[in-house]
Design brief:
By secondary structure, this protein is α/β, with parallel strands linked by helices. The radius of gyration is 20 Å and the shape is globular. The protein is 36% helix and 27% strand. Bound molecules: NADPH dihydro-nicotinamide-adenine-dinucleotide phosphate.
């Protein structure tokens, strides 16, 4: 018996609401709250049509801490799932602390005026959450999220010591547009236009954006060109996986996608610096977001599969070994189930499972936590049951 408030009614919020509604034994009461009420209403109507279950909706501005705190005090939920944007992380953590509510999100805080996402702002809340007797679970999506849990699972069951981790994210789907991003365009473009970074022998190494790539042979989706990027789970995993020597993150992009992005970047359309346009201050990337297809609209058009996993090398019983632990997800199957493509699906399902881990008590502890710090077994079990089955493949040493 638990009441949950889901904040954010975009592509991922839609999946979280559907999946929480499916797990009716855990999430007995659901309120979907966001800035645009009509988006919440449309999702609620779809859940009613698909599952025959009613959820409530509400309009909130999560940047307004006082109003959100009052909303939480009135609603008295057990947990808030923050599925809005990274900019809302700190305001929502503040509101949860003030109202005495546990918190979960899928992406780390990023100040709107600076393309710099880091855990430092949220880790600074550790003591506050401990003292308030509340829990915050950070990064419960796929990457970060499931990838962190995969590493913790490999550490627990496959290795005495992990030496290197390569996280690989392949989207082999096709939506038929010349250019579109699979999740919030502003967040996506900010992530891939900044310099790449990886961690080796205790140090961060920086590379020019998209300058290092490899052809990786993925299970099911085959060979794909994967580019080295900085991704937020590197920051916590390099601290929490003991003995680690190197960790990198790779994401696949088609040549067509990269060409479009390069042109947009060259003409200044990806800049976050506001410019004066007819007397109005406007950040080019925000304007770009307005003209690109809404990620939520990609669902009905996208075909193909994603494959995301961790290629891990380490020692077991005195011998070196290498595994790839991964999930494959099909865009069309996701759409049939929850009216969404696989990118939002692979993020939304783990957010629901993270919520389930907190509410069932399996992961519940005061403080601010990253995913790999908690027991991976119950989470891995739920992935198999809730739509994201995983496999482990032994690989030859490279
Ligand atoms: P969308 O832009 O599609 O949706 C964001 C939603 O948040 C919208 O409904 C938006 O409202 C709402 N919102 C924005 N600001 C506020 C506010 N101040 N108050 C209330 N609601 C607000 O994004 P996605 O669904 O694609 O992504 C959601 C989150 O998931 C992001 O943080 C993203 O970084 C994260 N993510 C994580 C991944 C992972 O694997 N860990 C992968 C993909 C995404 P409105 O409709 O009015 O704009």
């Amino acid at each position: 018996m638990a009441k949950v408030i889901i904040v954010g009614a975009g592509g991922v919020g839609n999946v979280v609401a559907h999946k929480c509604a499916q797990a009716s034994d855990v999430f007995t009461e659901i309120v979907l709250a966001s800035r645009t009420l009509s988006k919440c209403e449309a999702i609620a109507a779809d859940i009613l049509a698909k599952q025959g279950r009613s959820i409530r909706v509400a309009k909130i501005d999560a940047d307004d801490v006082a109003a959100t705190t009052q909303f939480l005090l009135d609603e008295k939920p057990d947990l808030l799932l923050n599925i809005a944007l990274p900019y809302q992380d700190l305001p929502l953590m503040d509101a949860c602390l003030a109202a005495g509510v546990d918190y979960l999100d899928t992406a780390n805080y990023e100040p709107p005026e600076e393309a710099k996402f880091e855990y430092k702002w949220q880790w600074a809340y550790r003591e506050k959450f401990e003292q308030a007797g509340r829990m915050a679970l950070l990064g419960s999506g796929f990457d970060p999220g499931v990838t962190n849990v995969f590493c913790a699972y490999a550490q627990k069951h496959y290795f005495d010591e992990i030496e290197t981790i390569d996280i690989l994210d392949a989207n082999a789907g096709n939506h038929g547009y010349h250019f579109a991003t699979n999740f919030n365009p502003e967040i996506n473009i900010r992530e891939i236009t900044q310099n790449g970074r990886y961690w080796e022998e205790g140090q961060w190494k920086e590379i020019e954006a998209m300058s290092v790539h490899q052809t990786y042979d993925f299970p099911v989706v085959g060979q794909q060109e994967a580019y080295l990027l900085y991704h937020e789970e590197l920051e916590s995993l390099c601290q929490n996986i003991k003995g680690l020597k190197r960790i990198r993150f790779w994401m696949t992009f088609s040549e067509k996608y990269l060409t479009h992005l390069k042109v947009l970047e060259n003409v200044g359309m990806t800049s976050i610096e506001p410019i004066d346009f007819n007397g109005q201050q406007i950040a080019p990337i925000e304007f770009l977001r307005a003209v690109l297809p809404d990620p939520a609209s990609l669902g009905p058009r996208t075909k193909g599969k994603t494959c995301i996993g961790c290629d891990i090398v380490g020692m077991k019983d005195g011998k070196k070994k290498r595994i790839f632990i991964y999930n494959v997800c099909d865009h069309e199957e996701c759409f049939a189930e929850v009216s969404s493509q696989a990118i939002s699906y692979t993020t939304g399902v783990p957010a629901m499972i993270g919520g389930m881990m907190i509410l069932s008590g399996k992961w519940r502890q005061d403080g601010v936590w990253n995913m790999e710090q908690l027991d991976p077994d119950p989470f891995m079990e739920q992935l198999n049951l809730r739509g994201l089955p995983w496999q482990v493949q032994e690989l030859p040493l490279g």
